[in-house]
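Suppose you are handed only two things: the residues of a chain and a line of SMILES describing magnesium ion. What would the bound structure be? This form records exactly that question and the answer produced for it, so the two can be stored side by side and reused later without any lookup.

QUESTION INPUTS
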Amino acid sequence: MVGDGDRKELTRRRGALATKRREYDEDDVRVRPGKSSRPRTRTRPRHADAVDGFVIAVDRGRYTCVPPDADPDTPLVTAMRARELGRKSVVVGDRVGLVGDTSGAAGALARIVRIAERRSVLRRTADDDETTAEGRLERVVVANADQLVIVSALADPPPRTGFIDRCLVAAYDADIEPLLCLTKADLAGPEQVLGYYAELELPYVLIEPDADLDALRDLLAGRVSVMVGHSGVGKSTLVNRLVPDADRAVGVVSAIGRGRHTSTSAVALRLPPRPGGGADAGWIVDTPGVRSFGLAHVSADSLLHGFPDLVEGTVDCPVNCQHTAEEADCALDAWVAAGRADARRLASYRRLLASRSGEGDAREPDQRNPGDPLEGS
Ligand SMILES: Nc1nc2c(ncn2[C@@H]2O[C@H](COP(=O)(O)OP(=O)(O)O)[C@@H](O)[C@H]2O)c(=O)[nH]1
Ligand SMILES: [Mg+2]
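ANSWER OUTPUT
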């Protein structure tokens, strides 16, 4: 007796055989010579007509895109993901292929059918809820960024090197160049912070209310830069100085979709062209929704890359040394004792190690007590 399932299976096999026979039919070869050298349909790029887009904002399933090299007046294209993307996420900074209505007219909706391979991926572990697996999900913050601009005030609030160190780890892990942006330089000097990073060749800029931003603009030109920083450090002030149109631009992208104003976790803003500057003044990605940089997704080894001043000190460590304070033979203690690196840097590294393994409090040290490596130094 042939069951329903068996019959389907037989039909499938006959179909497969028929296809096979057709493939090897000599007549086919004769009437279509050279067929085998032509690309087969399934390897030919789909949607050859897709146009390029650069994702500047993401809001509840709606993606705001701009043609990458278009002039600033080109209308924004609103798009949704095509089903064929599967579970692949699309984030700010992604370079995508768009089909459908890419006119940017009111109500027009395009489809994202491709995501270009990412040059860099800035991630964080969301630590909104550390007690559940879901709460500790690793999230991609921004794709294809060239630079991580770590914004820290020199005073009011005081610099938090724990946060800066965390950002440096995220930057090195993502293969993004870090830039230390020290604001409120009118209130305090940078000596202490720069002293703490003396062993690193960390590029930095100083920001004051009444001085121009030329040095910073030079470093932003032609690149995609992500800005991160605690609240109160002057991020919004800086973004508004760099992009006088920022408020309107953010308003436009966050109003897309269902017409309500919502906070997005990241939004890319085009820097205005500079007189005498190159064609591309660059993009800055503001991250108002990113409050911290959970690093649970970064391995202990990668974590060390955020501390290049300590790397050489681990050469004499025993195999499998975890470099924690509990490791009796960790060579980093001797490295610091010999004056080869700053003890505060080792303490900061070990604090991050402990927070990752769940031994310590994963919050920033400044959130649980006012102690910071720089204070009392
Ligand atoms: N003295 C001084 N104050 C600043 C500077 N930049 C920003 N502020 C002030 O710091 C406060 C917080 O700035 P804001 O841009 O809102 O910080 P955000 O939370 O990082 O976006 C505001 O009162 C600003 O006026 C600066 O360079 N010097
Ligand atoms: Mg702000």
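WHAT STANDS OUT: Residues 4-24 form the longest helix (21 residues). The mean pLDDT is 80.
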